[in-house]
């Protein structure tokens, strides 16, 4: 709940909005968009955005030309794709990959489909078509498809919802199907997904079988399917899955009592069917604690982010989708509190989340270790998905600020510049023994990268009833309709290296509309010009609003000066006491050993250090480097002593040159020590 009394009116307006949303009317405006003053942002299709950005295009192109092929090859080698042939009875053999491997295959299709949307490729399209045929052959007559259950545990259908991930895989299927249809216009995967969704809907719900997914995703995927097909049953099923979470006794506990005691082959190891329940739900037997799956409380009562971070992000995204579609203010209230829980007490400076390897997720407030930070790449993507949805609900830049932070730092660091090695966990300190890997036994992060990068254009712009919104400063061109007039906006900049942004309007006729430009929270002194004339900034919820009659060729110049800022952490973050981190614009910087004369761990950065910036085109694909003077702490006078009185120390203060590089490109020069948080002298 907001603490400002003035927002009561906003909540009232939100609750009074119409309760049904069609994807797009003929005039291009969402049917659910508010008409009484409440901001409601509308998606702009990926096909309508052409990204031409010096920072992101090389990464998107590497994803298209290398990562997509690399991930497909790994899915073949591990047996994840062949599983569909096994389930169809076309070949004989053993199940391959983790038991939710279907999800990774679907995510590959989703990523390939986004890539086809922005870059047609007949060879890739043929590969996708062939894979869809193999999936269709595995689907059973009633619509069910889950190769692990079909091949390994045929008597366990829907009996282990917490950990066998049938609904999670189904959600990935629906997301892939929507992306594939929107990219190609083909119904092959969409019809398969609809058949499965109809079966799932016939099985679960009030008056049917009780159940919720252990790993959320199907909820937001059902909303996507609803928006495409207009089939309200899918929206209602998403509501059911969200509303049932937190019911007591938990369906997971009920199923646990009925599970067999036999062992199954999971991740190449024989494990008891009940193993994961005992690891994650039975911390204090016999108490059954389902916080790991965000099942501890009904969602509208949840105020603290708990459990597995990726699952939480998918749940919160689904809650936001449902709030958008149904105007449920109680969901928005919970989401605001959950957002505070994450961003004010449980988020890394890079926008990543989840410090713990044990639960791949949240622990306690301010528990943000550096060297063993988990910060899973999938969770970083989840932060972008959730914050984008919160932005659509509110038009508030606090959400696009977090979206940008996670995008340029935690998410971007998840894949190498070569596109064929990845982070599953993404530490903030590296002792020189950590590097990205080409694949993982749990390969969700590579498939997440494959599907996110080509979809980037979806997050740059939005429409509203009064105009066009610019959320991210990524060089691109968007085409849309405003006031029944064709409008395009060309955005050009050197972001994130430089904060000068130029936007040029093209319109078939003079048109009155508002242009909303995000003013990032890190920017202290923004300025704006329209057709070369300075304009006073009118900022509401972090967006500068320019309302005028726009003509063809009108230009906007937005200046977002990027200062080097030294950040402190809240003193309750124990590992970061006495340390600083460096930020410039949207980027967090780090010290990496190849740029230093002294060991990373012996460098201090005085708080009064002045940094200069230098763009180095030949370094790490071309990056801004922060250069200044630091202090090297010498250990030469310690001999073999472990502890000494402070007064006996000589406190050497040898000054040394230091250089900091963006965190998003660390680890691309072989094994090397790295640190985001660096000791300071004050």
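-> sequence recovered:
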């Amino acid at each position: 709940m907001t603490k400002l009394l003035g927002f009561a009116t906003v909540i009232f307006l939100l609750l009074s909005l119409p309760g049904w949303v069609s994807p797009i009317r003929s005039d291009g405006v969402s049917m659910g968009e508010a008409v009484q003053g409440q901001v409601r942002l509308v998606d702009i299709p990926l096909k309508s955005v052409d990204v031409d950005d010096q920072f992101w295009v090389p990464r998107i192109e590497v994803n298209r030309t290398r990562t997509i092929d690399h991930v497909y090859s790994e899915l073949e080698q591990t047996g994840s794709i062949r599983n569909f042939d096994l389930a169809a009875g076309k070949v004989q053999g053993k199940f391959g990959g983790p038991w939710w491997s279907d999800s990774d295959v679907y995510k590959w299709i989703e990523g390939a489909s986004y890539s086809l949307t922005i870059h047609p490729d007949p060879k890739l399209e043929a590969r996708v078509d062939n894979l869809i045929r193999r999936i269709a052959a595995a689907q059973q007559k009633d619509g069910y498809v889950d190769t692990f259950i079909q091949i390994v545990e045929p008597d366990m259908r829907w009996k282990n919802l917490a950990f066998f991930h049938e609904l999670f895989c189904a959600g990935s299927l629906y997301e892939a199907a929507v992306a594939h249809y929107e990219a190609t216009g083909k119904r092959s995967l969409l019809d398969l997904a609809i058949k499965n969704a109809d079966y799932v809907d016939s099985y679960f719900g009030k008056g049917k079988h009780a159940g919720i997914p252990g790993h959320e995703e199907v909820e937001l995927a059902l909303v996507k399917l609803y928006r495409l097909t207009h089939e309200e049953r899918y929206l209602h099923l998403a509501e059911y899955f969200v509303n049932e979470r937190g019911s007591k006794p938990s369906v997971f506990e009920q199923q646990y009592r009925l599970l067999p005691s036999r062992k199954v082959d999971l991740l190449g190891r024989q494990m008891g069917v009940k193993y994961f329940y005992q690891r994650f739900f039975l911390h204090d037997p016999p108490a059954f604690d389902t916080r790991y799956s965000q099942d501890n409380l009904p969602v509208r009562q949840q105020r603290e982010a708990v459990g597995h971070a990726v699952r939480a992000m998918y749940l919160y995204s689904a809650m936001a989708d449902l709030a958008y579609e149904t105007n449920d203010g109680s969901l928005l209230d919970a989401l605001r509190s959950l957002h505070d829980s994450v961003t004010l007490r449980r988020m890394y400076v890079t926008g990543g989340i989840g410090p713990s390897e044990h639960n791949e997720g949240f622990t306690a407030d301010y528990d943000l270790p550096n060297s063993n930070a988990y910060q899973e790449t999938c969770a970083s993507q989840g932060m972008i998905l959730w914050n984008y949805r919160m932005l659509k609900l509110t038009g508030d830049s606090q959400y696009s600020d977090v979206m940008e932070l996670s995008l340029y730092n935690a998410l971007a660091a998840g894949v190498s510049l070569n596109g064929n090695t990845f982070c599953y966990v993404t530490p903030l300190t590296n002792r020189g023994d950590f590097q990205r890997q080409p694949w993982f036994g749990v390969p969700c992060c590579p498939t997440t990268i494959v599907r996110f990068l080509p979809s980037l254009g979806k997050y740059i712009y939005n429409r509203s009833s009064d105009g066009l919104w610019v959320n991210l400063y990524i060089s691109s061109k968007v085409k849309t309709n405003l006031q029944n007039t064709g409008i395009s906006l060309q955005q050009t900049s050197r972001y994130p290296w430089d904060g000068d942004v130029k936007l040029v309007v093209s319109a078939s006729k003079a048109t009155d509309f508002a242009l909303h430009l995000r003013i990032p929270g890190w920017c202290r002194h923004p300025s704006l010009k329209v057709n070369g004339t300075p304009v006073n900034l009118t900022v509401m919820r972090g967006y500068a609003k320019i309302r005028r009659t726009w003509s063809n060729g009108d230009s906007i110049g937005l200046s977002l000066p990027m200062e080097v800022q030294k950040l402190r952490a809240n003193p309750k973050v124990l590992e970061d006491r006495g340390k600083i981190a460096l930020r410039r614009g949207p980027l967090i910087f780090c010290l990496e050993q190849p740029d230093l004369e002294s060991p990373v761990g012996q460098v201090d950065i005085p708080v009064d250090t002045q940094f200069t910036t230098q763009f180095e085109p030949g370094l790490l694909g071309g990056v801004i480097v922060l250069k200044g003077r630091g202090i090297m702490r010498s250990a030469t006078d310690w001999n073999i002593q472990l502890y000494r009185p402070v007064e006996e120390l000589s406190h050497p203060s040898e000054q040394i040159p230091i250089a900091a590089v963006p965190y998003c490109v660390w680890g691309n020069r072989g094994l090397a020590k790295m640190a985001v948080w660096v000791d300071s002298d004050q």
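Residues 1-37 have pLDDT under 50 and may be disordered.
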